[in-house]
Each structure stands twice: as structure tokens, then as C-alpha cells.
Write a structure and sequence with these properties.
The chain has about 350 residues and is of the alpha/beta class. It contains nine helices and twelve strands. It has two domains: about 210 residues, P-loop containing nucleotide triphosphate hydrolases (Rossmann fold, 3-Layer(aba) Sandwich); about 70 residues, no CATH class. The strands form two sheets. An eight-stranded mixed β-sheet has the order 6-7-8-3-9-10-12-11, sandwiched between helices.
Length: about 350
């Protein structure tokens, strides 16, 4: 069944991806708290995700839903008072050996794997460059730490190559951050993340604060580099419309949980959760007549006082009695041909209880 909304039927089909289907990073039942004792806040509750080789996995949701917390916890970069209270994060080596649990990895091994196995472009990355160092020095720092055998000339040559790769003239290697535009600084951060050719690239809202033209250029650059180098991407954003174009799969988060997960194209055409439908209806359609944006009423819940049952039910126009008392679990939809779709919503379990405003199509 499909939640009917204002989403147009026509959408550009994403280009073919080089996803192999082999897992490269697997998050199992990850639980994260902020604070201690009775006052702690459960920011993530049993989140599970798998990233496959060569694919782009989109992670979307409103601010505060736990997107950044998820990736920072999975890479052990979660700042205090964040505390990982449960779960596993398995990294599968390229040689096919036994997976490594990142959460229990010794510090020296973890340090060695960063930038080489997994790299991150942080949220607000275009303001993350040190203003008193030239960009060439900042790019070569990680290279020097992980490739001590390289000479300074070789490191500088690698920095020039990386700048060219992201569309910046190599002679800008001696520029300071203030001499670059916002989009160029963002590209420098991407170049830094790719310096050691990691297998996993995590991008935490990489287009924030950029105009729409520059957003398009950055996204196209990321996809081009992914197709050329073969790394996998976790792309975090609150803009679902952006993920439709770049992601192979999308996971929708709400209140520290995943509420829907599936292929990007089918999620666009057939959202199975009212929250996903609300996110999709929060941006204007590119085709058809003008329509008023509906958005999502209300505000995200207080994590210290979560509602009973489905966390979204106080804001859901399709909620019924069960929604307020019983918490749905993330499970397959049961729809024929949708074995790769998961949703946490009682509307997919109790079709006889569906309210009249919700239209169901095959």
C-alpha cells in the first residue's frame, strides 16, 4: 500500500551504481545516551544499518533526529557527554578477512584506520579549515601521518592532484582559507577526506550554507568521484529531495530511530510512513500545477519525555488508537516485490483500521 500525497509520478532515474552488495560497514543495535543516571537522554535506540561497497546510503530526517549522532558514534568521534551504551559497528576489510568491531578496536588501530578506511566531511566543513595555515599544509597533514615514507615534494604533488580532482586549480595549494569561496573551501575538505583513498566516506550535510547552484556542483562532484574511485558514501541531510537524486538507498530517522528504509526511487514514489510523506511534501514538486506545501505539523518530541506508542503519532494525521499505545517495530512491508523495504508503522499492519483520509493504492 502507498500513502498518497503530492509527490509527482515522474522522477529522473539515478544513474547505475557500482554497488557490489557486499557489506563494508554494518551497524548493529547501536544505542547512544547523553548524560548519566536518571537524567540521561536516549539519543539512539537500537539503530541498525548496513552500508554496501560502492553505494550511496542517504540518511534523512529533521534536525535533532540523531543522524549526526549515529555516524559520530559509529566512528567513535562522539564528544562528551555522549556515551555509547550498546551495539556493534563492524568494518569488513578489503581482503575479505574477519570484520573488526570499531567500538572495541584498540586506540592505535583505530587511529591507523581513520582517513585510510573511513573518512568524514564534518557538518559545517567549509568553516573547519584552520585560518592560519595554507590549504596545502592542511591537506598533507594526514598524508604525512599515515605515509611517513613520502617526501614533502611527493606530498605536495598529491595535494595538487587532489585539488585538481575536486575542480580547484593546483596553484591554489598555497592559498589561505579566507582566499577561497565557500564552495571552494567545501571542496578542499572533500579533497582532504579523499587524500588516503578511503573505502567509506561519511558526509554530514556537506551542502549546508551553500547556494543551490553550488549544492548541485558539490553533489555532482561527489558522485563523479565515487564512480571513479569506488568508495561507499553515507550522505546525511535533512533535504530528502537531494537524496532522491544521489542515493541508492535512504534511511529515514525520527526521534533516534529508523522509521523507514528502502531504495531511493521507490521511497520517492511510494512512501510507506506518514513521516516520510511529510518530508517529501515539504519541498515543491518540479512538475504539475502549483501546490501549497503542507510540511509536518508540530515539532519533534522531547527525548526526555517521548510519547508512548509510535513516537510520531502526536503529529501524524493518520494515527489511530493502536498508534498511541503500542510501539511499532521496523519490519518488512509484506508487499509483494518489496522485500527490500522496511517501515515502522501500524498502517502497514492493520489495513482494516485505516482512516478514511488515507488513500491506499496497490
Amino acid at each position: 500500500m502507498t500513502l498518497a500525497g503530492t509527490i509527482p509520478d515522474s522522477v529522473p532515474t539515478p544513474p547505475a551504481r557500482r554497488a557490489s552488495g557486499r557489506p563494508i560497514l554494518e551497524i548493529r543495535d547501536l544505542t547512544v545516551d547523553y548524560g548519566y543516571g536518571d537524567e540521561r537522554v536516549h539519543a539512539l535506540r537500537g539503530v541498525s544499518l548496513t552500508l554496501n561497497e560502492g553505494e550511496v546510503l542517504g540518511l534523512a530526517g529533521e534536525s535533532g533526529c540523531g543522524k549526526s549522532t549515529l555516524v559520530y558514534a559509529a566512528t567513535r568521534l562522539l564528544p562528551p557527554p555522549g556515551l555509547i551504551s550498546g551495539g556493534q559497528v563492524l568494518y569488513y576489510p578489503e581482503d575479505g578477512g574477519q570484520p573488526v568491531d570499531v567500538l572495541r578496536q584498540p586506540e592505535d588501530e583505530l587511529r591507523e584506520s581513520r582517513w585510510q578506511d573511513t573518512a568524514i566531511v564534518f557538518q559545517g566543513a567549509m568553516n573547519s579549515l584552520n585560518p592560519v595555515y595554507r590549504i596545502g599544509t592542511q591537506i598533507t597533514d594526514a598524508i604525512a601521518a599515515h605515509r611517513p615514507g613520502m617526501s614533502r615534494a611527493q606530498r605536495d604533488e598529491r595535494a595538487r592532484e587532489l585539488l585538481s580532482m575536486v575542480g580547484i586549480a593546483p596553484n591554489r595549494i598555497r592559498s589561505y582559507p579566507h582566499q577561497l569561496s565557500g564552495g571552494m573551501r567545501q571542496r578542499v575538505m572533500i579533497a582532504m577526506a579523499l587524500a588516503l583513498e578511503p573505502r567509506v566516506l561519511i558526509m554530514d550535510e556537506p551542502t549546508t550554507a551553500l547556494d543551490v547552484v553550488m549544492q548541485r556542483q558539490i553533489v555532482e562532484q561527489i558522485i563523479e568521484l565515487r564512480d571513479r574511485m569506488g568508495f561507499a558514501v553515507i550522505f546525511i541531510t535533512h533535504d530528502v529531495s537531494l537524496l532522491i537524486e544521489v542515493a541508492d538507498r535512504i534511511a529515514i530517522m525520527y526521534a533516534g530511530e529508523i522509521v523507514e528504509h528502502g531504495p531511493a526511487s521507490t521511497m520517492y514514489r511510494k512512501p510507506r510512513h506518514p513521516y516520510t510523506l511529510g518530508l517529501l511534501n515539504s519541498f515543491p514538486p518540479l512538475h504539475g500545477p502549483k501546490q501549497e506545501l503542507t510540511g509536518i505539523p508540530g515539532s519533534p518530541p522531547d527525548l526526555q519525555a517521548l510519547p508512548s506508542g509510535c513516537r510520531f503519532h502526536p503529529r501524524c494525521p493518520y494515527a489511530f488508537d493502536t498508534c498511541s499505545t503500542v510501539t511499532p517495530t521496523l519490519a518488512h512491508t509484506g508487499v509483494p516485490g518489496e522485500s527490500n523495504r522496511q517501515v515502522a508503522c501500524w498502517l502497514n499492519e492493520n489495513e482494516s483500521l485505516l482512516p478514511a483520509p488515507l488513500h491506499i493504492t496497490a
